[in-house]
Amino acid sequence: MTLTQHGEETETAAQARPFTPPEVAAIRRDFPILQTLRAGKPLVYLDNAATSQKPLAVIDATTQYYESENANVHRGIHALSERATEVFEGAREDVRRFINAGRVSEIVFTRGTTESINLVAQSYGRQNVGPGDEVLLTTMEHHSNIVPWQMLCNERGAVLRVAPINEAGEVDMEAFRGLLSEKTKIVAVTHVSNALGTVNPIKEMVRLAHGVGAAALVDGAQAAPHMPVDVADLDCDFYALSAHKMFGPTGMGVLYGKEALLDAMPPYQGGGDMILSVTFEKTTYNKLPHKFEAGTPNIAGAAGLGAAVRYLENLDRRRIAAYERELLEHGAETLEQVPGLSFIGTAAEKAGVISFQLADVHPHDIGQLLNEENIAVRAGHHCAQPTMERFGVAATSRASFAFYNTKEEFDALADALGKVRELFA
Ligand code: 7TS
To answer: The whole model's pTM is what?
Structure first.
């Protein structure tokens, strides 16, 4: 673990070597979709914040599960069920190690970040937030980290508070501090913004939340693919992530929670696997983490997530962060040369995302024209409408990258944007 919560480097991270071009070329060969052409043009995939591509290791782990390991988990005594359970629980240990959690009982499998946050809002939130209490967010949250809290506050008569962000897209920390009080029960903040790329000073924000006795949830959907994550160091109470954004399968996610908190929380959903015994009079619940995993889980998803985690560990996340820092610098320098282009989100600490506007060309037109060059970017509000509102825009174009992207792809993007600009001038 070598990046601090603010993306600042400790000595080791500063020394982590970025990938060399031959190394990136080798990495790209792990991703079958990156070898595809459309109308003779190579795929330039710059929509990684929406979902990342999958390496063969992940595809193979999923296939292998269905081909030779498929059975339900935690139920049968037959060999296949035991094997499926090993795969499923092995992935839990992979995730525990990946985020440096203390125990596997603290790793709850969900459908994704969205479900992880809803679980905390509906379970911890309903239990701990009452009339007049407050939940504190920031302006830059994804709708997944807004709407569940809004639903909770509406139901409980609580108040949603929002820490503003500055022109660069950084949280105004003085305002954040000022909004914390003994009324604050939950602070829910994104680690990395999907719309702006801002890396938040999460460790400090968690510390401040704890200072007023609030629980701290971190939305890690956009951090896990880009940098080492250490929940012990962050000391957060909850950490949410999605497998599909970190090179694993869709429909699979994680909620990390501190054991004492998870233990005291009521179940989120009822059903099979989350119980110890059921009568019509009374049900007793299973131990952690199974108490929060009602029904047959996404076993193939867990197999794929475990493979994704091992793939990332093998690449070395410090080197991923070092290489992506180079990519971000090169991308920003190159795109800046495009006449009429302006950035939305210029935080000092950024990861993975370059959001921009091109004169008054609509982002959807930009996206469509880039698509003709087989360049995939996202155009829209990125499920972060309050962030768009903060910058007075309805939408941006967003190039979001991963460790398999190259400087040449940013050059191709800049060239194509130059042509778009000429077309509309
Ligand atoms: N939180 C953040 C910061 C996100 O970027 C996203 C998805 C989510 C939560 C929700 O994750 P899910 O896997 O549960 O859907 N972000 C995006 C995006 O930027 N473009 O498409 C989805």
So the answer is: 0.96
